[in-house]
Amino acid sequence: MALVNRVIWDENDKQLIVSEAARMYVTKEESAKTPALIAAMKKMLPADKQRHPIGLISNVKTWFHKNFNAEVDRLNKSGLVVVNQNGKQTRKERIIWSGLEKKFLAENCAKFMNDWTAKTLSQALFMSQSLLPENRRRGDSAAGNSSWLLPAVNAERKKQLSEEISSDKKELFSAAAALDAEIAAHHENVQTSPALALPAPAFVPPANNLTATLLTLREQIVDVMVGIFSDALLKAVAQTTSSLTRPAVDLMPQPIDKPTKAHDPRMHSEPRPLMLSVLVVGCKGTQPEMLKREFGHKLNLNFYSSDQSKYELRAKVDAADKVLVWASFVSHSHTDVINARKKDAVVVVHGGMDGLRTQLHIMIANAP
Q1: Domain segments of the chain: what residues?
Q2: Is the N or C terminus of the chain more exposed, i.e. has fewer CB atoms within 10 Å?
Q3: Residues 117-141 pLDDT 10s
């Protein structure tokens, strides 16, 4: 009787089988655990790692049942099964993000959190998903069901902050090199005068020592200022000496012509037309400054965030011609206050910053 080598599954093999078996069971591709286990094994593992179906469920019961039930519960909570109001269940295909999509989401989440556009990971993921096609977006619980997301975002945030610091260092060294060149040029100009001769500075930016760099820059700036003061002092002494040999000046008062008033074209310019006043409700972090830079020359923009009082909201709504409400970041209580005071002038925006910019462009086009 020939002996058959026993197939041993590692943890990765077990995870593949459990995940696929649970998916088949939830979507009703298989009606029970045992058929789901056998089908998942045949689908996910190569032929040399598959076991014989007979007695399979009893051989793996020590780890399969517990992990299988947990995975089924997780899939049901993640939205794979949707229960309608009439009690019937409808199923939808689970969205699996590719590696490129995960990288795209992690980069944008890190960007939104580093510039304080989003305060939490859930907000950052919600805003990042708005940049994906609609059929590739998950529900509001996507952040809690994505175990890879937090480590990927933290790594990307460190990378982006490191690049910003490196850029700041390059700007500092460029400014130091320019200052060194200016000091050398000044040294060449005054070197011919023995009284003003200064030793040539040699600026060598110390590596990874910002404090020492700034101290060196300060010392060189002081040296330059001393040289400039010495130039001015010598010129003043020369002028004083030459004035001793000048002829006497007539000290009698001379008639002074009355100056004519210069024409100021601004006094007769036409008044500037009033810009449309728009109140944007829901912006956070650096978003107001971004919008002011982009649209401030066309619209009179004002902003309100949820950390301000309802009294300020009422006053700002009364002073605005139009009110843009960013629905994703505004509560119902704020919306009620706005509609009670100026309902006809309210425009509700859904989605991300692109939707907000689109509405502002429309207001500029329709402005009187």
Answers
A1: 11-91, 99-166, 180-239, 277-366
A2: N
A3: 777 888 888 888 888 888 888 876 6
Average pLDDT, the chain: 76
The answer to whether 198 and 187 have CB atoms below 8 angstroms apart is yes
* Residue 156 near residue 110, CB atoms below 8 Å: yes
Please tell me the chain's helix, strand, coil percentages from 3-state DSSP, rounded to the nearest 5.
60, 5, 35
Say how many C-beta atoms besides its own lie within 10 A of residue 132's C-beta. Answer: 16
**Alpha-carbon span 116 to 242, nearest angstrom:** 65
User: Which of 23, 15, 3 is closest to 60 using CA atoms?
Assistant: 15
Instruction: Go through the chain and tell me how many residues it has.
Output: 368
- Which single residue is written with the structure tokens 């400039």? 228
CATH architecture for residues 277-366? 3-Layer(aba) Sandwich (3.40)
Phi and psi, residue 149, nearest 5°: -70, -50
* Chain segment 84-103, per-residue pLDDT in tens: 445 455 555 667 888 888 99
CB under 8 Å to 228, separation ≥6 — which residues?
Answer: 186
Q: Which of 17-21, 169-173, 279-283, 358-362 has the lowest mean pLDDT?
A: 169-173
Q: Which residue reads 């130039």 in tokens?
A: 231
Q: Which residues contact 22 (CB under 8 A, 6 or more apart)?
A: 36, 68, 71, 72, 75
AA letter at 203: F
Cβ(74)–Cβ(94) below 8 Å: no
